[in-house]
């Protein structure tokens, strides 16, 4: 048998074998997803060696008698390179999650620069699941992005002046079933000057009113029966106005408030005892229709 024929037969056999290895390697890469799981004969080094043998055989077969060695060497080098490439690991690099802190992002969802779903109001619930978009900053929300309403009265907590209304009780826009007595809103003796603790109470009232911009309120001052009716009327009016002025300083629009002094006209307890008179000296908050 001639040299060329022998070389070609050997080369052909090795080509078939190498092709099978390369094909197996490609399939293994796609299934296992890691080069460490591939068979030994699928390793690029093994394929390179096989390719070198193939290339050397082919180079030897096609070379003349005077350049057999150089032909075989050139063929071996080329075959080794080709074999290594055929069995190279083509497993795609794992793709990092689009938003590692969120998880899988549904297709078509608007995302930010980091690939995370947009949360326009910053409440922790992405826009595509948020049933109450535009929640003010810092307001606690439920799983669907709506402000909490702990007593279920239809007025969310951040607006509710009476957050513990019993279930089923009808309330006004302030979240209260009736006029709200502003407990601990007291004044200096015989004066309309608010005390420090009173201001702290009114800070919370003002915050909820600012968050409830469509509601107007009536601020009503009351006294006990000591002193003249005219004096008490005047004092209650000044105290109601003092509360309104403080709320305005805290951001409540003045045109949403009215101040009314009722003096001693509307007692809620007896004026014959200290405890009763203390209850009568009060400021109430009500919805102003």
Automatic annotation (TrEMBL):
Record domain OmpA-like: where: 178-289
Keywords attached to this entry: Cell outer membrane, Membrane, Signal
Presence of keyword Lipid biosynthesis: no
Region (Disordered): 265-289
Annotated Gene3D superfamilies: OmpA-like domain (3.30.1330.60), TSP type-3 repeat (4.10.1080.10)
One Pfam family named in its UniProt record: OmpA
Subcellular location: Cell outer membrane
Matching InterPro entries: Bact_OuterMem_StrucFunc, OMP_bac, OmpA-like, OMPA-like_CS, OmpA-like_sf, Thrombospondin_3-like_rpt, TSP_type-3_rpt
Residues annotated as signal peptide: 1-24
PROSITE patterns: OMPA_1, OMPA_2, PROKAR_LIPOPROTEIN
Stretches of the chain forming a coiled coil according to its record: none
Stated name of the protein: OmpA family protein
Protein's organism: Halomonas dongshanensis
């Amino acid at each position: 048998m001639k040299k060329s024929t022998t070389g070609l037969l050997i080369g052909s056999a090795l080509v078939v074998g190498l092709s099978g290895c390369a094909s197996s390697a490609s399939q293994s890469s796609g299934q296992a997803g890691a080069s460490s799981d591939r068979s030994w004969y699928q390793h690029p080094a093994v394929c390179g060696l096989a390719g070198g043998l193939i290339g050397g055989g082919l180079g030897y077969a096609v070379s003349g008698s005077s350049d057999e060695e150089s032909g075989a060497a050139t063929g071996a080098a080329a075959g080794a390179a080709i074999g290594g490439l055929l069995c190279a690991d083509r497993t795609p690099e794992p793709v990092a999650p689009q938003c590692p802190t969120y998880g899988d992002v549904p297709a078509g969802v608007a995302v930010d620069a980091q690939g995370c779903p947009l949360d326009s109001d910053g409440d922790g619930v992405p826009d595509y699941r948020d049933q109450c978009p535009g929640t003010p900053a810092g307001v606690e929300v439920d799983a669907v992005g709506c402000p909490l309403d702990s007593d279920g009265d239809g007025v969310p907590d951040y607006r509710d002046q009476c957050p513990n209304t019993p279930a089923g009780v009808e309330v006004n826009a302030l979240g209260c079933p009736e006029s709200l007595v502003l407990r601990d809103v007291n004044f200096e003796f015989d004066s309309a000057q608010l005390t420090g603790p009173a201001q702290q109470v009114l800070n919370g009232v003002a915050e909820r009113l600012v968050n409830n911009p469509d509601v107007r309120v009536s601020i009503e001052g009351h006294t006990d029966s000591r002193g003249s009716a005219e004096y008490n009327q005047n004092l209650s009016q000044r105290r109601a106005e003092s509360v309104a002025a403080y709320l305005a300083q805290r951001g409540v629009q003045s045109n949403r408030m009215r101040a009314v002094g009722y003096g001693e006209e509307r007692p809620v307890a007896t004026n014959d005892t200290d405890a009763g008179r203390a209850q009568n000296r009060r400021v109430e908050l009500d919805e102003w229709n």
